[in-house]
Each structure stands twice: as C-alpha cells, then as structure tokens.
From TrEMBL:
Chemical reaction(s) catalysed: phosphoenolpyruvate + UDP-N-acetyl-alpha-D-glucosamine = UDP-N-acetyl-3-O-(1-carboxyvinyl)-alpha-D-glucosamine + phosphate
Statement: the UniProt record of this protein carries the keyword Ribosomal protein: no
CDD domains linked: UdpNAET
HAMAP family: MurA
E.C. numbers: 2.5.1.7
Protein name: UDP-N-acetylglucosamine 1-carboxyvinyltransferase
Family: Belongs to the EPSP synthase family. MurA subfamily.
Annotated active site: C118 (proton donor)
GN (gene name): murA
Length: 421
C-alpha cells in the first residue's frame, strides 16, 4: 500500500492551477446516459472516482475514452444493454447512485447497489427514492441492491425534499428531464455543482429553471441530444490550497478558480487573518500575521461547506486560542480529530461540535486518512508539524485530488509517495 511521507515545510509559494470539480463531473458523466448521442466533457480531472464512473457507464453499455493530456472524456451511450450495476464500481463511490435517475427515466428500470463514498455518516438514499416514487417508480431492496422500475415511464410531479440533498436533487433533476410533464423540486440543493449539471442538461436540450435556488422546475422532453461541456473548477480543491497557504504562512496564486463559489471559505479565512485578493491572473491567498481562532458551522450552500470542515480543523489545531467547529450536515464527520490528536492536537468532541485549543506546534507521526477530506487535512497538518508524518490509506485522497503531491511540491512542500515495506 502506498503512503505519503510529509515533512515540515517552509511557507508555500507559487501558482497552482485548480482542476475540474469532482462533485460536478460525476453527475455530468451520469447525465451522459440520458442520450444516445455522443457527449464530450472537458476539464475532467484524473481522479479514481472519475475512472470508476467511466467503468460504471461502460457496464451499462456506454463507450468512454479519456485523454489525460487534454483532460477530455468522450462518452457515447447509444445502446444501454444493461441497467444493472455490479458491486465493484458502485460501492466504491457515492456518485454511482446518480446513474439511477438517468437509467430509470430512459430505460424505465435500474438496479444499483447501495452506494459507497466517504464513510462520514449513514448516508441513506431515501430522498432519491422518495422522489422517484412520487414520479411513478416502484423499488425494492434485495441483497443490498436497489431495484427500480417505472413500467410506463416517469411523470413530472412536485417533489419536496426534507433536506436539500445534493445527490437527491441531481438524481431527480436528471430523471425529470425525460419524464412526462413538469417536475418541481422544492427545498432543492443550490450548490454550484447542481447549476453546472443543469447547464450541461440544458445544452442537451433539457428545459430547467431555478437551479441555484431552492425551487427547480424541469419540463420533461421526449429526448435529449449530445453536448459538449467544460466542467467548473473544484471549489474544495481551491479551498484546500487556500488553507495550505494560511497554515504555512505562505502566498499562493490560484488559477482557474470561481471566486463566487468560495464566498464562505474566503469569509472564514479572512476571520482567521489570511488575506485574499482577486488579481487579473487568479485568486491570491497569503498570510503574514498570526492566525486567529474560528467559530464555524457547516451548512448546505451557500453556507460553509462540510467538505472544508476537516481542513479548517487542521488550521484551528495550530491557532492559539479556542476554536469551535460544528458539523450539521453529516453525523459522523469528525474521524480526522482522532488522527490530529495523534499529532498532538487538543480537540474535544461534544456531540456535533469540536472544541479545539490551538497548540504551539504539532509533531509528525503515523496517521491514517479516514476519508477524502480527512486525508487532505492530515497533509496540511503535516506540512506545519515538526518532523515527519506518514499518511496511510491514501486511496481516499486519490478519489478527489488530482496530482496533489505534484501540485504541493511545486509550491515548495516536502511531500513524497512511498511503498510500504
Ligand atoms: C459526489 C458528491 O457530490 N458528494 C457531495 C454530496 O454528497 P451527497 O449528495 O451524498 O450529500 P447530500 O447532500 O445528499 O447529503 C446531505 C445530508 O442528507 C442526508 N441524506 C441525503 C440523501 C438522502 O436520500 N437521505 C438523507 O438523509 C445525508 O445523510 C447527509 O446527512 O454533497 C455533500 C454535501 O455537500 C458533500 O459533502 C459531498 O462531497
Ligand atoms: C464526501 C465527499 O465525497 P463523496 O460524496 O463522493 O463521498 C467529498 O468530496 O468530500
């Protein structure tokens, strides 16, 4: 098993190009199942989740090809000979379940294992299923596989989500594009990745309004056609490098970022005493003075993203004073706290809140990436910790960061990959 070896590093300096967003490209790839015509997606990051998603589409009969140099994926779902996913790819990632909506609406049936993804809570799919059932589908769960069918196709309806779930909004929105009539999703998620998916669907001929608000209206079409789309940049990868600049007292220019997607992250970094500046070539993030403690609560967009929570805990761990971080989106997303404690962090978990007393410095040791963002948080802590940190289970990190060591090394970080002896 490969590991990352990270040593305390000088302040990071330089320029980094932010890749396409994992959480945008995965639903967009699933949406390619909605048409028999070819689609071309650009700014596709080379992530294991992306490759698993391509394999999943191939299981259904789609043809895919990826050119790493141009970061372009081509998908043609002309014939979908199979609507049943095997366990391997589906269980590896959460986004596998996003194939359900497209398959159900186009082929009137789908069978998908309950999805995997980051182990950060129970992560049910009841809201996805509630939407499909209101639209006329029936489902049963057998041997861990959700079997869905809608013999006469789906019908547009009003679907109220009890929580603005990102995945449920995406799945129902895709299903609605080929349903008969109008679907209205109420209490919908408003994340930028939902808008990017809606933009792609509109290019395919879908009629969608209201994405980016809590009410999305979709007018079903008889068919969709092929389209070309450039994926938005990854706001969580951007936030990770911004936090890296803050924790090391560095000065980084981020290229290809959408600053408007980073409002909560910029606000909290500013409260921590990091500075951000929009320049003609990108977003500059730097810190000169001491870090200040933070109070933050994760919320659906435009609130502070849960995917940035672990990274801010790393920052708080070395910030003098008391910080409080409250996680409201996932019920079990503090597993990184135990790993940070191994590095000397002073963190107490009280139900959904973490109370962090900043220490003067952390010390390197062997730690485990318990999930994707936990792994990235450990890298940042290791950059600021005395000595050497060995991070295992880095496959989690590879699910969502494209060449993270290469990008960090170019900024001056001391980070290497090693094989376990
Ligand atoms: C591939 C992808 O885009 N992943 C993102 C997506 O995950 P994902 O789409 O899984 O997240 P959701 O917004 O659906 O989940 C939010 C909350 O709703 C709950 N829930 C969700 C669906 C459901 O049917 N029933 C239910 O109870 C979840 O358990 C969780 O507590 O949004 C999350 C919240 O911004 C991010 O952390 C993930 O990075
Ligand atoms: C939780 C995440 O991903 P997933 O939903 O794919 O597990 C994440 O990107 O931080």
């Amino acid at each position: 098993m490969e590991k990352l070896i990270v040593r305390q590093s000088e302040a990071l300096h330089g320029t980094v190009r932010i890749s396409g967003a994992k959480n945008a490209v995965l639903p967009i790839l699933a949406a390619c199942l909605l048409t028999e015509e070819p689609c071309t997606i650009t700014n596709v990051p080379a992530l294991t989740d992306v490759m698993e998603m391509a394999e999943l589409l191939e299981e259904f009969g789609a043809e895919t090809s990826y050119d790493g140099l141009t970061e372009t994926m081509r998908i043609c779902s002309e014939t979908l000979s199979n609507q049943q996913a095997a366990e391997k790819n589906a269980c590896a990632m959460r986004a596998s379940f996003l194939a359900a909506g497209p398959l159900l609406t186009r082929c009137h049936q789908a069978a998908l294992p309950l999805p995997g993804g980051c182990p950060i809570g129970s992560r049910p799919v009841d809201l996805h299923l509630k939407g499909f059932s209101i639209m006329g589908a029936v489902h049963k769960l057998e041997h861990g596989v959700v079997e869905l069918s809608a013999k006469n196709g789906l019908r547009g309806k009003r679907v109220y989500l009890d929580f603005p779930s990102v995945g449920a909004t995406e799945n129902i929105m895709m299903a609605a594009t080929l349903a008969k009539g109008t679907t209205t999703i109420e209490n919908a998620a408003a994340e930028p990745e939902i808008c990017d998916l809606a933009d792609f669907l509109r290019k395919m001929g879908a009629e969608i309004t209201g994405d980016g608000t809590d009410t999305i209206v979709i007018q079903g079409q008889k068919r969709l056609h092929g389209a070309t789309h450039n994926v938005i940049s990854d706001r969580i990868e951007a936030g990770t490098f911004m936090t890296a600049a803050a924790i090391t007292g560095g000065d980084i220019l981020l290229e290809q970022v959408r600053q408007e997607h980073l409002t909560p992250v910029i606000a909290k970094l500013t409260e921590c005493n990091a500075k951000t500046e929009v320049t003609s070539s990108g977003l500059r993030v730097y810190r000169k003075g001491r870090l200040r403690p933070i109070q933050l609560k994760t919320m659906p967009y435009p609130g502070f993203p849960t995917d940035m929570q672990a990274l801010f805990m790393s920052l708080a761990a070395v910030t003098k004073g008391t910080s409080v971080i409250t996680e409201t989106v996932f019920e079990n997303r503090f597993m990184h706290a135990a790993e940070l404690q191994r590095m000397g962090a002073d963190i107490k978990i009280d139900s959904r809140s973490a109370i962090i007393e900043g220490v003067d410095s952390l010390t390197g040791t062997s730690v485990r990436a318990t999930d994707l963002r936990a792994g990235a948080a450990l890298i940042l802590s290791a950059l600021a910790a005395r000595g050497e940190t060995e991070i295992s289970d880095i496959y989690h990190i590879e699910r969502g960061y494209d060449r993270i060591e290469e990008k960090l090394r170019a900024l001056g970080a001391d980070i290497q990959r090693s094989k376990d002896s």
